[in-house]
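From: lab user (bench 3)
To: helpdesk
Subject: output format question, protein + zinc ion

Hello, I'm new to running complex predictions and I'm not sure whether the block I got back is the full result or only part of it. Here's what I submitted:
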Amino acid sequence: MSPSSAPVDAVQTQRLLKLTEIIHFLHSRGWTPATSSNFSCRLPDEGSPGFSISVSGLDKGAFSAENFMDVDFAGQVIHPEQAHLRPSAETLLHALVYQKDTSAQVVLHTHSVNGTVLSKLYEAQKGIGLKDFEVLKGLEGTATHQTEIWLPIFSNAQDMSALSAEIEAGWGNHPPLYGFLLAGHGLYTWGATHAQAKRHVEVFEFLFDCILKLRSHGYPDYSR
Ligand SMILES: [Zn+2]
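Helpdesk reply: Thanks, we reran it on our side. This is the complete output you should expect:
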């Protein structure tokens, strides 16, 4: 795959093409502004050493399947031919998700306005409780709107090792975990398939919109 010149793996090439379509969709919704956001896909074989992740700093509207590079779970470049490329600054957070949730195949990280606003409004509570919304059934394994899902919020940081350790420490507190927000920053979510991961972003974004509207109407569950 030029320009990276990494060894071509036909299966992963297809998976990255599919992921690129999703990136364009997320960009079209305004959820990946100003070259922000990053995306990854686990390498396909059992026992593979890592994942393909978007290179840093590209406009996601113009992103192509050639703009990924392969890294291991320590965030290190796998192929010497790609040593000149710079993986996303948040590579370690993707690595954490793949290691904590072994079913995760795709990790999507977006920067929407609604997610960013809510992450600030609920930062002191360290999360948002989501219940009694039909769209929650879009989260894999959720069969009823009555399920309560906790979306944790972690304070933002530029030290990815420290941030990763903090997220890892809080990982099992409110299972099942479908994603998390970084305060003033954005959403991480993932899935066992491309479609599932995309659906999870859509569920969360739909709910962010609902919660902001409910707050503006003084709805008790989201009044503070
Ligand atoms: Zn980010």
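A quick orientation on your result: The pocket of zinc ion is lined by residues 36, 90, 109, 111, 185-186 (CB under 6 Å). Let us know if anything else is unclear.
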